[in-house]
Amino acid sequence: MYYLGKRSLGRLHRLHPSLAACVAIAISESDVDFTVSETVRTKERQHQLYYGTPKRTWTLNSKHLVQQDGFSHAVDLVPLQGGQPAWDKCPLVKDAMFKAAERVGVKLCWGGDWNQNGDSRDEHQRGSYDGPHFELIEQFS
Ligand SMILES: [Zn+2]
InterPro entries recorded for this chain (predicted)? Predict the structure, then answer.
């Protein structure tokens, strides 16, 4: 069983509580270890990622920015194997996160399948694949 390290826990600061709950549940049930790499992003950092070379993001309106409720609605989770990033394991983190979301009662969008067609190949083709990225889907009730 895996658990979040100190650094990962510290990065949950200002992450939406429902999303933080998903991360906490997912790590204890995941088939792969992972670390929290990024949550809250400042406008300045988003600008750097957008205008920088290489271009690291496709939007200036990222869910990583603090939203109206004061929280970031996006988290980047990097799978680890032997302490090293294991990018091919992103789908395992996705499985754990989606199971956790069901228990928490929220809906997530995974950056490995933005259009949620159950396939990552089209995302790779478009260059939009972002395996570590998860964000909350707004729920209007
Ligand atoms: Zn992200």
Answer: Zn_M74/Hedgehog-like
Domain made up of 6-139: CATH architecture: 2-Layer Sandwich (3.30)
Over residues 42-97, the pLDDT tens digits come to 999 999 999 998 888 878 889 999 999 999 999 999 999 998 999 999 999 999 99
For residue 23, name the pLDDT band (cuts at 50, 70, 90): very high
From ligand 1's centre to the CA of 18, what distance in Å? 16
**3-state secondary structure string, the chain?**
CCCCCHHHHHCCCCECHHHHHHHHHHHHHCCCEEEEEECCECHHHHHHHHHCCCCCCCCCCCCCEECCCCCECEEEEEEEECCEECHHHHHHHHHHHHHHHHHHCCCEEECCCCCCCCCCHHHHHHCCCCCCEEEECCCCC
pTM here is 0.92
